[in-house]
Write a structure and sequence with these properties.
The complex is a heterodimer.
Chain A lengths: L14 H11 L50 H43 L11 E7 L7 H15 L4 E6 L7 H15 L6 H5 L18 H10 L5 E6 L9 H11 L6 E7 L3 H7 L2 H4 L2 E7 L3 H13 L7 E2 L1 H15 L2 H18 L15 H8 L2 H12 L5 H9 L1 H37 L10 H9 L7 H11 L3 H14 L5 H7 L9 H22 L9 H4 E2 L2 H8 L3 H10 L1 H4 L13 H11 L3 E3 H29 L6 H6 L8 H17 L3 E6 L8 E6 L6
Parallel strand pairs in A: 1-4, 1-5, 2-3, 3-4, 6-7
Antiparallel strand pairs in A: 8-10, 9-10
Chain B lengths: L5 H10 L4 H10 L10 E6 L5 H12 L2 E6 L6 H14 L17 H15 L5 E6 L9 H8 L10 E7 L14 E4 L4 H9 L3 H7 L9 H23 L3 H15 L1 H4 L12 H16 L8 H7 L13 H15 L5 H5 L13 H6 L12 E2 H11 L8 H12 L3 E4 L19 E4 L3 H10 L11
Parallel strand pairs in B: 1-4, 1-5, 2-3, 3-4
Antiparallel strand pairs in B: 6-8, 7-8
The chains are: A alpha/beta, B alpha/beta.
Amino acid sequence: MPASVFETPTKRKTAPEALADQMLSGDGESIEHNELISDRDVHKTCYVIKPSGDPRKKAKRNHPFIRLDQSIPETDGHVVDRWTLYTKSIANIQTRLESLLNDADESTLHRVWKYVTSTRDYHHDAYTLLPVGLVLAGANISSHARLFTNMSKYIEQREAQKVATVVVTLRDASSLREALRKIISQLVGQRKGDDEDEITARMNTVPQGDQTDKRLSYDLDVLVDWFVKQESVEKIVVIIQDADGSDGNLLPEVIRMLFVYRNRLPFVLLLAIATTLPIFNTKIPKRTIGMVDFESFDVLRTDDSLTRLLDEILLSSSTQLLLGPGLFRSLLKRYNNHTKNLETFTSAIQYAYMTHFFANPLSIILTPQAIEKSEVHIIALRTIPSFQSYVADWTSKEECDTEHIRELLTDSTSLLAFVGSCQKEFYEFVSRQSDALKLLDVLQDASSTYSSTTVKRTRAGLYADAITGALRGSPIVRELVMFITKMSAATVDNLARLIDQKFDKNSVIRKMRDSWNIGSINGKASHLKLISNISKAMQEYLDANLNSYTDIVFHELFVFDSVSLCENTFAPRYRATIEQALMQPSYYLCHPSEAGELEKPFLSVAHALYRESGTLINIYDYWTAFHQVVIAKCDTETMDNESLQATNEDEDADYSSRLTPSPTTLSESQTLALFYKAISELKYLGFLKEMSSKRGGNKNTVAVLQKLVWDGL
Amino acid sequence: MTDLTDNRLQELTLEFPARYNQFDLLNSVLSKDKTTNPTAIALVGQSSSGKSCVLRRFLQEVQFSHTWLSCDECVTLRVLLQRILAALRAIGTQDPNKLDYSVLCHNSTLFVTQLNDTLRALALEEAHFVVLDRIDELGEPYESFYQLIINIGNMLRYDGITFILVSSRSEPRSSVTTTFPHIYFPPYSKAESLAILRKESPDSIRSMLGSTERKLSDAQLTSLWSSYSQVIIDTYFPLYGPDIQQLKAIVRRVFPTYAKPVLDGVVGILASNRNYHGFVKLYKINQPLLTSEEFVRNSFVSYVQGTGAAESTGHHDMPMYAKYLLCAAYLASYSKPRYDIRLFSRIRESRRRVRNTAKQKFKDKINSRNLAPSPFEYERLLAIFQCIVPDRIDSVTDIQTQVATLATLKLITRVGIGSDSSGGSSIDILGSTSKWRVNVSWDIILQISRDIKLQIENYLMD
């Protein structure tokens, strides 16, 4: 049946229906539609699909997890188990993350607070400068709000009523007036219960009526009066959250105003700097710098926090899920190259946990008793590659204990016991990795006093290599062992001290160090013997402990390593996606078609021609080419369509034919309409711009299209 | 009918060196009699040439009724006008310090009317002076107000008020032809500056060293201070000239460190002027102090370096690609698009020979680095970015996020209409046609490029 361009679908399956079917076929649930979506709805850009009333589905779940019936026929109980496991582990992590993030800020907050209190001793005279704290908070502006709200709370808590703080952003204040108005209204409005309400009430309005005080809301005298009435307040801390994001001269003006009033209002100004001090310095006039007495505070380097994150969350004693090397590498790369933001890093970890428990039905293995009675899980366990290769290795041995394998393959209880032992092995692996990495850290510290030329590699940088076993025998390990063999007596002492600091009394390394007997060393010979012993012990220890996680059977259950999932979630490639959609529409419009390859939409045709042309495209040339392609398509299409009709006349000629109307009957004007549509769609996508050109000596202007998007970016 | 005798003027001059003429002029122009005073008088001279303090001292001495208003405290003219009126209305009430803010004055015309009303109500018997200190530092353009004040005599129906304008800038051009009294304060010479610095009392010197200081006698302190002032003047006068405020601030900042050897007993100071030995020794110890820039303090950076904290304030917090993007933005702003193929492409250069005409050479003579950055398109930024990063990266959303962050930090700025970040404009900020401009200087770019080990000079034509 030939379809015309403006054909309206009648009894065929509509687009939303097809879409819904696709969506729902995924997880095996079927939902009926309330009614056929009307013709009018076809033109909508998005659809709401209302599930019809299946009574079984109405039982409300109080968790977002669903049954993964495609891989393992789970029961609802298993889903709940996975959900509880997830919530438990994530709650555990979150509290630690919270404390980690807060601790990272804590030291800065403390220093800033000390600075604020130290300014109390200022002796006010004509030479007093305005105290300014420059808080270098890092380029990650999204965390500034949290940091500075915390700062204001921290200072207020510790100073009881003595300090009034106010946090302002200059970005949304267009002038000095507005900035001052913000500061004043926040401060005056802050302490309710005083008789200041009437001032705050009309802070933002033009004063009216017969009130006696008609001062303007940005007059700092208002604040002076307020301050005089406050008996307890000794300091006014003004925190400017975006010191380097403000427009032009605003910040210097604010500083000047606070400076002018410094003798009547005891201001302390805290500026959040997201760039660096040299850059900030160029934005502030020297005259303004002359007005301030400043001190800079560096918010703790986040690299240290990253090491702590590794210690306390990824490799802690309660770690249940290890981040795989690939995933960790990509997260670290993103952190260094793009974000420098600890919060995004931690949210990625959370996402990894969520994905693991959501999508892996075997993730409930963390509590083995949960699947004791579930035969399906037992069967699934036996299909895991690491288990299969374990069995293969075992049976390929010459004198193998087939009984053990037979038990594992037939008896569920022994399999579960084996899983339990593997789990134990995994926990041991984690703690040994953690210790080994710490040891490498300590060795590097000890050797850095020895030679300062080498750059220290952080634990976070070594992590991925460590858990894959790539560190065993690697240059860095060899170098460090080499360093041990050259240690002087003082360095040995230093190393021993560092080990005492960093390691528990019960740890293996501590025991190793206790056996050194440093006190009994006298003479060169005994020293040489000692260091050769140490290096041998260290070498053995590192060789034994830096093994790969793939050695553990069932490691697939304990290590989550899906790189692409996280990369696509957090940093989608928007350009590549759009380009692919235009070049290979079949990738996205994957509609089963009897005719084999799907016909391209006209937008794609226009885009293909677009890619073949130069920076300026003559409209007429473009149209001619387009027309030719469409006509050429038309010829082949006619044949295809005829054969199609002959064999199959029902719904399958369908959706795609409406999307790309069959060109058999296309007149030139219809093609032109399609051309205009394609061009305007390209324009809408930002590929093209209309312009007129006088090129080639022509006096008449020629209508051309300018290409805007560069290729390969 | 002057208020102060010549003897008194001489005494005041001892307090304020080299300001006899100014006192004399003030004394002859201003008087208590409201009929003889001009309605406006201006005190002009460079900043910190003693205008305000001479005037203050004079008014205190003659005990004229006056109101002192610092214009730099007023964000807008409305605040200033309101304060003038409020202060005038408070005259004669029980508590003159409690200002009456019940009036609000929106513009100068209204001000004249309200001033007339106020003066009528006041019915001044003696002259009243309104000092508008630092009129040039009013938060808004002050020129029209300045002109209003000097012409206000024609508009007032009641006399008795005199405005004293204190300004460190030269008169606005519009008022040059108006005749009204000026008192000029010439900048202090080196000798005068020294005399002013030396006038510090032993008590205040002692307070600079800390209130607990009791080791040195007054005479010793004075001797130390006098030699010290000479050193400071010799060191810093060429830099600051007659800016006495700055000199005083520096004197205060340096003194505790300078005097430390004396307090520690390393150098002995005698209370006489013939103390060359001790002075030379002290000078030698303190020589590094006087050559360092630590005490000048006009930059956030050098001061930090002085305390040795510069290392920790590197660029560690910027993500790596943000640095590359910033360098790319600089290159896009400072290299011309026609050189792009030569600079960034691997296509052989011979493909295009540059026409080396004399005309062009002349045009390009100014180093482009000294010119304002030119705008570039977003796509060009991305293209250059791709050329300078060591490994090929896809256009992920993170790159856009970083461009947005750089824009928020004003390291790159948007050019053209709708550049406000508050939204409202329908133009896509990260659309391919949006134009940008780098907002960072060459020094900083150089520093950043060193950080990421990028030889940025290779990509620049000059």
